[in-house]
Amino acid sequence: MSPAILISSIVSSGSTGGGSGFAQIMGLVIGGILINNFVLSRFLGICPFLGVSKQLDSAVGMGAAVVFVMAMAGTMCFALWELLLVPLGLQYLSTIVFILVIAALVQLVEMILLKYSPALYKALGIYLPLITTNCAVLGVAVINKDAGYDLLHSVVNAVAGALGFCLALILMAGLRERLEYSDVPAALRGKPITFILAGVMSIAFLGFAGLGV
Amino acid sequence: MHAIVLTALAACLQAQSTAGAVALPAILLGATGLVLGLGLAVAARQFAVQKDPRVEALEKLLPGANCGGCGYPGCSGFAGALASGKAEPSGCVAANAATISALAAEMGVEVSDKVRRIAVVQCNGGHSAATAFRYDGPRGCASAMLVMGGDKLCRFGCLGMGDCVAACPFGALSMGVNGVPAVFPEKCTGCGRCVQACPKRIITLWPIDRQVVVACSNREKGAVARKGCTVACIACGRCEKACPVQAITVSDNLARIDSAKCVNCGLCATVCPTGAIIDRAPARPKAYIDSSCVGCTVCAKICPVNAITGELKKKHDVDQEKCIGCGLCAPKCPRNSIRMVGALSYRKEGA
């Protein structure tokens, strides 16, 4: 079987559900960014959401790193799932294999950042290796697997989810930069007000559920 | 190709179902790991970054406690700052004198002379302090602090639940029998973790060669302070008057020692009616006058305890019982006849 045929067979093998191709992809994009936002609706990836949202610059850098890792993880995890785990009947190994892939990808991102953007590498600090344990990354691989998406849908879902994560992170960073200059009661300064803020943002994003894509 | 491999693997699985069920996942995981590992190895070559070799050498010399006492994020952060000239070798609070000189040698700089600072608990209340109510909550000063600022009647005193002891990365603190933490000067590095951990903010970093400390933080008026604790500073001002070098001032109803002026004479501790000032010197130096003395009487006039006696133009003598080793006389002697013999412990370890 040639690679081209293999890929085409994979692309068509996943269940595509209802709706035409383009509409479904748009649905995934809107859904991933707004309706099923990883942070604010699914509550995944809270750790970097609260940890790296102090400055807009590092938030943007972190977002970009997560987009890269999630897109790559979505693709590679899909390939491993369809090409190795399902044919061999080893579906129960999915979590450990996915984590293996994600850990390797994060290492790669770390090396690239250290080489090309040491400042960003420093700003992200401990949260960079912690992308490994960012549940949003594992989450997108598991969601793709459970929903039975094909390659295209998997990648779109991963990128849209990562962009949603980015959006939440950047919005939070912007708000927290403003928060620095606002008169917060002493008892709520720091983490408490950040949690309240996250809750309010989550409630606001609940409104997107009405889009019904 | 892929299909052949899969078929072979599946055949293997069917042929030895029990062994295959164990071996196959292991092979699969191992192979995945191997491929990813090889990929990373190639990437590590591709994206290799040249590091300053001095940073690694310096980091090896550092204690590696990552205490953060230097103000940089961990020992590697401090090594980076050292290499770029932003920090001095003596900035590492956890290093002993030998380590600091090794660091300086590595960088080819001189060691600046800096007196080591250690943690001092400015409260001696403990079990002597009255309690306002019974606290039954979770152990820990931070928790106790949440309930009306702790169970002690004194609002400023040590809660005695050892948050500082738990925070110390060097085991330099332990809860003393009197209910306040004791500091082991040999182990304390002055990293300041305990200072941060104490919710009452009563631990300060104090030069190790200053042996007299005010062990009270109560800023209430005397009567109120005494009600809460038998060893509280009542702001009577006797220490202020007794100090021969004006190193003590009473402000906000609390005696404070200026460590830059203090000469370790310990007079304040002897006059303090409540014992709020603690003299920790195990031994004091004594003044000796040699035969070159011309009897000018300058030393006798300056001595705060009248330990020096002698007639004009005749050799003076020091009453060793009375001498408190303040060392005020020695620099005043015009003939340089006075020697301070013996030293306070810890003084030499300074650097």
Q: Give the CA-based shape of chain B.
A: elongated
Quick one: how many beta strands of chain B?
12
If strands are numbered along the chain, what order do they take across the biggest sheet of chain B?
1-4
- Fraction of residues in H or I helices of chain B: 25-40%
What does this structure look like?
The complex is a heterodimer of chains A (213) and B (351). Helix content of chain A is 72%, strand content 0%. Chain A has 9 helices and no strands. In chain A, α4 packs antiparallel against α5, α4 (56-88) packs parallel to α7 and α5 (94-116) packs across α7 (135-147). Chain A is globular, with a radius of gyration of 18 Å. Chain A starts with a helix and ends in a 7-residue tail after the last helix. Chain B is an alpha+beta fold and 351 residues long. Chain B has helices spanning 2-15, 17-46, 53-61, 74-83, 97-107, 141-146, 163-167, 193-197, 222-228, 238-242, 267-271, 298-302, 329-332; strands at 117-121, 173-175, 181-183, 203-207, 212-214, 248-251, 254-257, 277-279, 286-289, 308-309, 317-318, 338-341. The longest helix of chain B has 30 residues, at 17-46. Chain B is elongated and about 115 Å long. Mean pLDDT of chain B is 85; it is low at 345-351.
Characteristic key phrases:
heterodimer; A: about 210 residues; mainly alpha; 9 helices; about 70% helix; about 0% strand; disordered N terminus; B: about 350 residues; alpha+beta; 3-methyladenine DNA Glycosylase II, Chain A, domain 3; Alpha-Beta Plaits; 4 domains; two-stranded antiparallel sheet; elongated; disordered C terminus
Blueprint (SSEs and pairs):
The complex is a heterodimer of chains A (213) and B (351).
Chain A: H1 3-13, H2 21-35, H3 46-51, H4 56-88, H5 94-116, H6 118-124, H7 135-147, H8 151-179, H9 191-206
Chain B: H1 2-15, H2 17-46, H3 53-61, H4 74-83, H5 97-107, E1 117-121, H6 141-146, H7 163-167, E2 173-175, E3 181-183, H8 193-197, E4 203-207, E5 212-214, H9 222-228, H10 238-242, E6 248-251, E7 254-257, H11 267-271, E8 277-279, E9 286-289, H12 298-302, E10 308-309, E11 317-318, H13 329-332, E12 338-341
Antiparallel strand pairs in B: 1-4, 2-3, 5-8, 6-7, 9-12, 10-11
Helix pairs in contact in B: 1-2, 3-4, 3-5
